[in-house]
Every structure is written in C-alpha cells, then in structure tokens.
From TrEMBL:
Names of required cofactors: Mg(2+)
Protein name: HAD-IA family hydrolase
Species in which this protein is naturally found: Halomonas pelophila
Similarity field: Belongs to the HAD-like hydrolase superfamily. CbbY/CbbZ/Gph/YieH family.
Alphabetized GO MF terms: hydrolase activity
UniProt-listed Gene3D superfamilies: HAD superfamily/HAD-like (3.40.50.1000), Putative phosphatase, domain 2 (1.10.150.240)
InterPro entries with a match to the protein in the record: Beta-PGM-like, HAD-like_sf, HAD-SF_hydro_IA, HAD_sf, PGP-like_dom2
Signal peptide segment: none
Length: 227
C-alpha cells in the first residue's frame, strides 16, 4: 500500500482570503511611489506573483523608482499588511473543513510570500496547527513560482518524490510551476468565468470538493500498486 500523498498548499487565495488585503496595500503603496496600481490589477494580471516582479513590470511602464525608496516602501507595506492580516483575515470557505478531513496526510504550505506573512496568515485563521513547521517560503528558498524549484525544495524537505506530491493552488504561477515540477496539480479555480484551468491540472471550484478528489487519487494509486 503506498504511503499517503504529500499535500502542498498555496497560502494566499487557497487557504486564506488575503488577496483583497494584499491588493489594497499594494495599490496604496505603489501608487504613492509613482507606479499607478489598482486592486483589480493584482487580481487580474499579477495574482500570486512575486512583489518585485510586479514592481519591475510597473517600472517598465511608468519609470524607475529609487531603490532605497522602494525598499522603505516595501517594508512599510508589509508591516501594514501584517497588521491587517492579524486582525481582518479569514480562511477561504471550506479550507478548515478540508484540512481536517485530510489530516492523515503529510501537509505543507508553499508560498511566494515571506515566511512571517505565511505564519501570520495561518495563525490568524486558526490553520497553523495543521502544518507545524512545514512552511516553505520563496524568500527562504530564494526561488519563486512559477519556477518549479520551489516545489522541488518543499518535496525534498518533506521527504517525498515529486510523483508522491499533490499541489493545491489557485494562481496560475503556482499551477504552472507545480505542473513543471512533475506533481499532480489541483487548481482551485474560484473565477471559472475568467480563468481557464491548464491542461494536466484537476479543477475544483471550492475547497469543500478537495477531500473527494484526494480520495479518488489515493484509490487510483492503490489500484495501480496492486496491478
């Protein structure tokens, strides 16, 4: 009997509903720095992307920002965001129920965000106990989605091969990175009217569906092992 699949979750937009708060703080900070940015720009064009990649794209359009000013802006933005996450953040509908149903699986969080932001988000929503120290930040690994190396890093630290891992992610950068890593991918597509699930990924529209999908994957593995 194969051991249980290792489940690797994205954080923002998959486990916690932090993206509206993040988009709001980015809009205020970047616009103040001379890089016009609306909350809808994050949700439409940059969802899940690394902050500095967003800045680089905006600088190509609107001109460069002094690096020292940008560093100070990012520090202030992240401090404001962490305060709001601690007091305003809620979990994605069905996330707590799905994690409870899947608690017999090894689970980790793989995020493009800083580790302190991941911890703040999970603590604020009561989800941190499900993951312990299995939190894998791109800032710690120095490797950002959609590069598959962040997923390989997480799998290695968890002690699993890529084919034993299932990634659950809502953003295209994560879905594409996990597919490139050779992992099974479940796309939490909360915006099916405007977003298409890539070929090779399994689509769900809410987290309540996740335990059933994982159960089907486990059954298929068990049958293959006995074939």
């Amino acid at each position: 009997m194969p051991r249980p699949l290792c489940l690797l979750f994205d954080c923002d937009g998959t486990l916690v509903d932090s993206e509206p708060l993040l988009a709001d703080e980015m809009s205020s900070s970047l616009t103040e720095a001379g890089l016009p940015f609306r909350t809808s720009d994050y949700m439409g064009e940059f969802r899940g992307a690394r902050f500095r990649r967003i800045v680089a794209a905006l600088e190509q359009r609107y001109g460069s920002v002094d690096p020292e000013r940008l560093d100070a802006l990012e520090c202030r933005m992240r401090a404001n965001l962490n305060r709001r996450l601690a007091s305003e953040l809620i979990a994605i509908d069905g996330a707590a129920e799905a994690l409870a149903a899947l608690s017999h699986h090894p689970m980790g969080v793989v995020s493009n965000g800083p580790e302190n932001k991941i911890r703040t988000s999970l603590d604020a929503t009561g989800l941190s106990a499900m993951f312990g120290d299995h939190l894998f930040s791109a800032y710690t690994a120095q490797c950002w989605k959609p590069d598959p190396c962040l997923f390989h890093h997480a799998a290695s630290r968890m002690g699993f091969a890529a084919e034993e891992c299932v990634v659950i992610d809502d953003a295209m950068v994560g879905v594409r990175g996990a597919l490139a890593a050779g992992m099974t991918v479940i796309h939490l597509n909360r915006f099916p009217d405007v977003e298409q699930t890539p070929a090779g990924a399994i689509m769900i529209s809410n987290m309540f569906q996740l335990p059933t999908v994982i159960a089907h994957l486990e059954t298929s593995r068990a049958l293959a092992a006995h074939a």
